[in-house]
Amino acid sequence: MAYFEHEGCTLHYQEYGQGEPLVLLHGLGSSSQDWELQVPVLSRQYRVILMDIRGHGRSDKPRDGYQIATFSEDLLALLEHLQTGPVHLVGLSMGGMVGFQFAVDHPQWLRSLCIVNSAPEVKRRTRNDWIWWAKRWGLARLLSVETVGKGLAERLFPKPGQADLRQKMAERWARNDKRAYLKSFDAIVDWGVAERIGQIRCPTLVIAADHDYTPIQLKERYVAQIPAARLAVIEDSRHATPLDQPEVFNQTLLQFLAAASTSQGSLSPC
């Protein structure tokens, strides 16, 4: 375990393997533990770097600083601390939002970008958007983190054969700090950089589960706006694709990373 401090917040990170630096960012209410099925495979070829986003895992849970842009600046501080140079960046869900923010703010720090089950904005534009937000906002505040964790695990891992995974993830998510979780949830709502994603020039892969919260068509629309992006759909998967389809996910990511590294040769800004 290792720690560094950025603007008064102590953040936890881990490193595995050697090679080109590869950063994995987790989603809302999760931690770097959720990449446990990726690290052994990816670290054979890459220097894998995991960070617990502030408010999550072993990182501090401060009273403020919960914005996607702040999470992105925390990541930049870590890369400067480790002197990595440009990295491959993979972000799941909220981690993907941080990835989008980082890509438009700090393109020179990216070799490639992989977005998993995420979007470049979360805007409340329609009546349904407001209903979704109000329901999630209310339940998150009324229910305990244990109840939220159990419900989430049941939704994401519903198969009989996923009982062990379902129980493990419910217990893991139940350890969330509720105040930090709620502040991170609020950071997502009305955030967006969709108007800037056309600036992203590095090789970009968007991975979409066929049963994700948002439809594949939404991913297709924003992928079309990114010059060097392509979409990969993983079947029989829900929002936590690295956990419910690890073999397919790992192979899809490794193929993309190999192609990204080959195509770049000498690094140029993202």
Automatic annotation (TrEMBL):
Domain AB hydrolase-1: 21-244
Entry's EC annotation: 3.5.1.-
SUPFAM superfamilies found in the cross-reference section: alpha/beta-Hydrolases
GO molecular function: hydrolase activity
GO cellular-component term (any): membrane
First-tier enzyme category under EC: hydrolase
Listed InterPro entries: AB_hydrolase_1, AB_hydrolase_fold, AB_hydrolase_sf
Pfam families from the UniProt entry: Abhydrolase_1
UniProt keyword terms in alphabetical order: Hydrolase
Protein name as it appears in the record: Putative aminoacrylate hydrolase RutD
